[in-house]
Design a protein that fits this description.
By secondary structure, the protein is an all-alpha fold. 48% of the residues lie in helices and 0% in strands.
Length: 97
Amino acid sequence: MSDQPSSPISPPGPSPGDQPPLTDEQRMLIDLRDVLYEGSWEDFRVDLNARRQSKPHVFDTVPETPRTQSIIDLHLRLIGELEEWEHRYGCRLRGTT
């Protein structure tokens, strides 16, 4: 048994520079973090929470619909998982930019 909690993202490959396989949505979030939020997960999270509360925000990931809140919740969960993976393995995830 491992003392580390399980991660929804696979551990890195054999090389230190490897990263786990990422979904298109995870890659999109990493790209948005790097381009719009200068690499800051925290700034991204603050902006999504502002959108959730109908406060000024930087970027709309989807048009406003009744599903918007669930999509914001999903993106916040994915951001948490990606950020945890980076902390656990000491690697910075890269998107497609």
